[in-house]
Every structure is written in structure tokens, then in C-alpha cells.
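Bench log. Compound arrived from synthesis this morning; before running ITC I wanted a structural hypothesis for how adenosine monophosphate sits in the protein. Inputs:
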Amino acid sequence: MKILSVNAGSSSLKFRLFEMPAEEVLISGVFERIGIGESFYTIKLNKDKIKKEAILNNHEDAFKILVKELIENKVISSTDEIKAIGHRTVQGGEKYKQSVRIDESVINDMIKYSPLAPLHNPAAITGIKAAKNIFNSAEQVAVFDTSFHATMDKINYIYPVPYEWYTKYGVRKYGMHGTSHRFISKRINEILGKDNTKVITCHIGNGASISAILNGKCIDTSMGLTPNAGVMMGSRCGDIDCSIIPYIMKEANMTSEEIDNILNKKSGLLGVSGVSSDSRDIEKGIEEGNERCILAQKMFVRKIINYIAMYYVELKGADAIVFTAGIGENSISTRKQIMEGLDVLGIKLDENANNCRGEEKLISTKDSKIACYVIPTDEELMIARDTYELV
Ligand code: AMP
């Protein structure tokens, strides 16, 4: 059965087509700059990578081109062959504890939850509507980033603010990157060969979140009501003293939109270094002796260590710590610094093994008290698996 995994952003559309249940990737790619001019797309088919310019006024245009490419490249002979489409969806509120088939009520709920994910939910809805128009016989499935975290206890998801903010406005910790944490949780349990595990998953990319997972179920996670909570990120601040916000709004005469924009897009590694939100640029800055890059990296590592230590205590130990996403999979120095900062827990880095990028690997020594792994995440595959199971 052919299943398409889709991740729609406001101006982008990533896709991967799977043959399920074999989990074979038939074709993958991304459409970029949709609706903002100079649009283009890249496609990976077999070992070839094709990049083409195209007029993409909206997501429907992208799907139309996708169909054309699929047929021209003989991946399918008609759109009917794609039986289902799974959509990455960020915010499912308290209602969606699992992936679901999409009907009108699901779309309405996604609209209702949009204020909690103003960048992501509307983009996903656009993607779903466009996909429905082009692939009208395919089932549509929503895979929520929040659903893996639905198993958290109230003690971990209620904020110490007036309780009415929760009941009236839905203010609570929802967590994000759930599809990635779930994929990693499943994989590490396969590697460890058991289900009763204590695992700390570190999804460290441009956005970053850490989760505490007990027996395959999330008990705590670092992102909150929005993705701007927990550890410091590429351009997001993560946890800060919340009184900084009214203070700066007053002192710098800023609106709530302006400060929100700065805390999301001009803070984190970028804000502290003044150089970049990209960890490769920070690493380059460190090599050149840039003091603020050095400071930004030390802070970044410190915040991640703090969360791992907190979750180690919450889980009452840990069988494994897993690093994933852009930085977790690729930054040898960041992993080294994090693991060395956790030596008090008996963690021992295997320097040779850690000299790897983007591959599944044990990077701690045999006598390390906690096994540390790099596991490349695969949210698209997780979406395809859920979609296949549902249809
Ligand atoms: P993601 O959001 O998961 O795509 O991750 C993006 C982050 O991964 C950026 O900060 C990149 O700099 C970082 N990244 C990707 N490749 C490398 C690398 N080889 N070394 C260090 N950081 C990397």
C-alpha cells in the first residue's frame, strides 16, 4: 500500500512516499518558497536528486507537480494508487491522544487549537485541504506532535498560575516533537530488547526538546504550551524568568507581538552569539575564538544537561540517553560536552564511537552507567506507520 507522509509549513511542503508495510521509501522531496516567489522543489528518487524551479502559488500547485513527477517517473500510474496521506500536525490539544482519520470535525478542532500553534496548525490545514483536492480518493490522517505527551501526569503539565487559566484558556504543558520522541522511544526499546525502560530522549535541532520516557510512555517533556519552553534553542529562548517580558515591553516600548517575535526568532544561540542560530556557525565562531559563540554554546549545553539531570531524577535512573535531530545526530562536540557534563552520573563517552554523524550508534563506553546512543529520527516514517495502521 502506498502511503504519502506530508509535512506542510506555511511556505513549504515536505513529502515522502512509502510502500507499506515494507517501509520502503519510493520518493521524497520538498517544495520551497510556496506563495512567496522564486519557488523550487527538490526530489530524491533512487539515488538521484533533482532540483527544479516552478511556479508554486499555493500548496495545491505543489501537489499537482508532485503527481506529475510521480507519474512521469513511473512511481505511480494514477493518483488512486496512493491510498492514504498522513499529515504532520502540531497541536491536537487535550483531545487527540492518538493519530486520527481526518474529517470535518478534526479540521474544526485544528482551527480551534490554532491560537496555540499559530504558525503550524493553519499550515497543516492548508496542506490537508490541498491534498484532499488533488488526491480525492485517499484517506487523510492527522498525526499530532502533542499526542505522545498525552500520558503526562497533571503534576507535570499544570503551570503554577491560576487554575482557571487551564480550565478557561487551555494553559498547560502540551509538549512538541512528540512524533520524533515516540519514534526514538520505540527504536531504543528495540535496541535495549525490552519495554520496561527508563529513557531520556534529546531531540536537539533548531528547535530542541528533551523527554523523560518510562516504559515507552512520556512522563515529562521540556516544551510547554508552545515550542518556546524548556532548553535554549537556535533562535528561541526556552525557559526564562517570565517577568523579563513585561519589563522589556515597558522599557523598550514593545508590543506583545514584537517581544514574542524576538523571543522566538532572535533569541537562543542567535541572540546570545549575535552570529547565527545555526550550530555549525557557532562551532566555526568558537574555532575563531568568538567569545559570544563560546558563551552561547556553553549555555546551550548547560540547559540540556540541566534537563537530563532533572529527568534522571524524575525517572529514578536511566537505561539510556538518546541524541537525535540535526545537532543531536551531527554535532560531535555538542554531544561530547553534554556527556562530559554528566560524568557525575557515571556516563562515559567513547570518543571513537562518538566520531559519527547521522548514523545509529552507541557512543558511551561499555562501563558507562547509562548507555548513550545517537539514533537518527524519522518522523515521516512514524507518520506513515500510524497512517497505515489507521487505514
Ligand atoms: P534540524 O532542526 O533538526 O534540521 O537541525 C538543524 C540544526 O542542526 C542546525 O543548528 C544545524 O547547524 C545542525 N547541524 C546539522 N548538521 C550539523 C553538523 N554537521 N554539525 C553541527 N551541527 C549540525
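What the model suggests: Residues 205-206, 234, 278-280, 283, 325-327, 330-331, 357 surround adenosine monophosphate (CB under 6 Å). The first strand starts at residue 2 and ends at 8.
ITC booked for Thursday regardless.
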